[in-house]
Amino acid sequence: MGALGVPGAGKGAPAAATAAAQPPAAAPACPFARLAGAAGLGGPAAGAASAGPRRAPAEGAAPGRPSARGQLRTLGALVADGLPGVTLHLAAEEAAADGAAFPCWRFPNAAQELGPKYMGGVAAATGWVFPSDPDDVRWVAQEQAPNYKERFLPDAYEYVAGGKGLLASSGEYNQRHRVKCTQPFSQKGQLRKFSEVAAEGSAAMAREWRTAGGPVEVDCCLHMQRLTLDLIGRVAFSYDFGQTAATGRELRGETRKAPSSLVDAVNEFGEAMARVFITPLPVLRALERARWGGVLDLKASWGNMKGAMRPIIAERREEIARGAPEQPRDLLDSLLLTTDWGDNELLEDVVDVLGAGHETTASTLSAALWSVAAHPEVQAELRAELDAVLGREANLAADPPAITWEQLEDLHCAKRVIRETLRLYPAIPVFPRFARKDDVLPSGHSVQKGDVVFLSAYALGRNPALWDDPLTFRPDRFRAEAAEARHPFAFLPFGAGPRMCIGAQFAEMSATLALASLLRGNDIEVVGDRGSGILPVEYDITMHFNRTGGVKARVSPRAADAEGPVPHTC
Ligand code: HEM
Predict the structure, then answer these.
(1) Residues enclosing ligand 1, CB less than 6 A?
(2) Going by C-beta distance under 8 Å and a sequence separation of 6 or more, which residues neighbour residue 254?
(3) Distance separating alpha carbons of residues 226 and 241, to the nearest angstrom
(4) Distance separating alpha carbons of residues 355 and 404, to the nearest angstrom
(5) Is 242 left (phi over 0), alpha (psi -120 to 50) or beta?
(6) Is the separation of the CB atoms in 12 and 150 below 8 Å?
(7) Measured between alpha carbons, how far apart are the two ends of the chain, in Å?
C-alpha cells in the first residue's frame, strides 16, 4: 500500500490550481503534452464519444439499487475485489440488469442515524453513489467541483498530519500549497531538468540489471520501489536514498547495508501507516489513550521522518543564504525561494510528495514491466522503437548514455505502454467526492447532500462500453487517432479537476524513461504462468501485489548477437 499515495476529494478551484490540472496548455513543449491532451487528462471537455445506448432517467430521479440478487453479487465483488471491483461490477455487470449503458447506483447509509460524529470517512455519508457515465464523472470532478470539494481521506492521515500538508489539508491552506508545489512539476524548464534526473537514475538501475550476470529473477515491486524512491528523493529535495546502489549490491550477493536514518524512517512510517490505514479517527484516539503500540509507532515514525529531514532543510537554508541558485534545483529550492514557510510547513509538503509519488509510480512500473514480459509482441515493438530512437549499438553497450529529452519525445510506443498500464492498473483506483448540496447529474440521476460519490478510474478503464475488449493489453489504443475519438473522461488515472494529481506529467515522464532504460539492453520474461495476460492486483487504497505473489520477472542482458533490427512501426 502507498501509505501516503492516497486520493483526495476536491475543493473550490483556484485559478492556478485549475491551470495546473490541465497539463497540455501549461507546458506545450513537454513530450507528454500532446498525449495528455489526447487522452483528456483533466483537460478541457473534448468531443464526447460515449459508447452504447443511453436510457436517460427522468430529471432528478434517484439512482436505484441493484435487485436483491444484484446486491448479493455486489457484496461478492466487494469481498473478492474490494471497492475498485465493486465500482467496475456496478458499472459493467449490473449495467445489463439496468438496461442502460452507463448506470448509476446508490446505496443509502442505514447507519446514518447514529450521526457522522460517530463515524469517520466514507461511513459518515448519507449514501454511496456509483456513477459510471464519463459525463457524470466530468460533472462531479470538474464542472461542479465546488459542490464536491470535500475530500475523503483515511482518518489515519488526519490523525498524523492534523489537516496539514498537500493531501490532508483543505481550503485556503491547501490552495496556497497546491499552487506552489505544482509549479516545479508543471513548468517545462523544471520538467526537463527532472527528466535528466529520471533518465540518469533509471540508467543506473538498468546497469545493475544488465551487469548482474543474468538471467536473474528480479522482484519488480521491490526494485521499482527503490528506483522511484531514489528519483522522487532527488526531485523533491536532491536527496540520494541510495536504493539503486543497494539493489546492485544485493544482486552481486553483497549484503552490506548502507546506513540511512531517513530511509529507515520512511520505511517505518509506511509500515506503521499500513497497519492502521482504515482505522476511524475516534478509534485511533482511543488506541492512543490505551497506549497501543501500533498507534504509538505511527506517531513516532512520523516524528522520526520529519526529524531526519530537518537537518536537510536547515542546510539548504544556509546554502541559499550564502547565494541563491539561479534556478531551483528541486521542489525544496522552489518552495524556499518563493515562500516564507517555516520548517513544518515545508516538511509536510515534501513528505506528501515523497509518499504520493513513490509507490504509485513504482506499482505502475511493476505492472508495465510484467505486461511487456507477458506480451512478446509488445516487447518486440518496443525494442524496435528503442533501437530506432536510441540506437542499437548504444542499447547494447555496457553503459549506455542516459536518454535525452529530445529522444524521450520520440518514444511513442513506450508512452503508450505506460498509458495502457495506467488504464488497466490505475495505482489509485477510486477518487471519492462528498456532495455539499443536492445535485442532478448530466445522466439525470440525483445526488443527495452528504452522499459520497465514487469516481473510479478503474471502472472507467475496464468498462466494455468505453473500451473494445478491455481485458486485453493493447497499447495501440493510445495512438493519437484512437485517443481523440474517445470520451476525454474515459481515462483518468490521475483523477481530474482541481484536486487532480500534481505529479501526472512527471509520473508519466519518469515511468516512460524507466521502462525504456530498463528494457533497451535487457530482455524480460514472466516467471511462471502468464495466465490470461492480465496481472492479478489487489487494492486497499492504492494498488499492491502483496497477497497476489508480487511481480517477479526474469531479466537477462540482451545479447550482442541477438536478432538484427526489426521494422519500426511506432
Ligand atoms: C503513476 C503514478 C501516479 C498516479 C497513478 C497518481 C494518481 C493520483 C490520483 C488518482 C490522485 C487523486 C486525484 C483526484 O482526487 O482527482 C493523486 C493525487 C496526488 N498526487 Fe499523484 N499519482 C502518481 C504520481 C504522483 C507523483 C510522481 C507525484 C509527485 C510529484 C504525485 C503527487 C500527488 C499529490 C501531491 C496529490 C494530492 C493532490 C491534492 O490533494 O491536491 N503523484 N495522484
Answers:
(1) 7-8, 166-167, 178, 185, 352-353, 356-357, 360-361, 364, 426-428, 431, 493-497, 499-503, 506-507
(2) none
(3) 8
(4) 27
(5) left
(6) no
(7) 35
3-state secondary structure of 524: strand
pLDDT tens for 279-293 read 878 888 899 999 888
Find out whether 431 and 9 touch, Cβ atoms under 8 Å. Answer: yes
Q: Choose one of 354, 494, 505, 506 to mutate for the ligand 1 pocket test, by most ligand atoms within 8 angstroms of C-beta.
A: 494
Q: What is the CATH number of the domain that holds 258?
A: 1.10.630.10
The total domain count for the chain is: 1
Q: Which domain holds residue 117?
A: 15-557
CA of 178 to the centre of ligand 1 (A): 11
Task: Please give the torsion angle defined by the CA atoms of residues 476, 481, 482 and 485, in that order, rounded to the nearest 10 degrees.
Answer: 170
- Kindly state whether residue 408 falls inside one of the protein's structural domains: yes
Among 155, 138, 226, smallest CA distance to 6 is for: 155
Cell 536527496, located at residue: 239
What letter represents residue 218's amino acid?
Answer: V
For 25-82, write each residue's pLDDT tens digit: 333 344 444 333 333 333 323 333 344 445 567 777 888 888 888 899 999 988 888 8
Task: Assess if residue 366 is contained within a domain.
Answer: yes
> In which residue are the cell numbers 473494445 written?
468
Give the residue among 316, 330, 150, 159 at the shortest CA–CA distance from 238: 330
Rounded Cα distance between 51 and 44, Å, is 19
In the chain, % helix, strand, coil (3-state, to 5) comes to 55, 10, 35
Contact present, 489 and 390 (Cβ < 8 Å): no
Q: Please indicate, yes or no, if residue 2 is contained in any of the structural domains.
A: no
**Structural domain contains residue 522:** yes
Q: Look-up: residue for cell 518486440?
A: 380
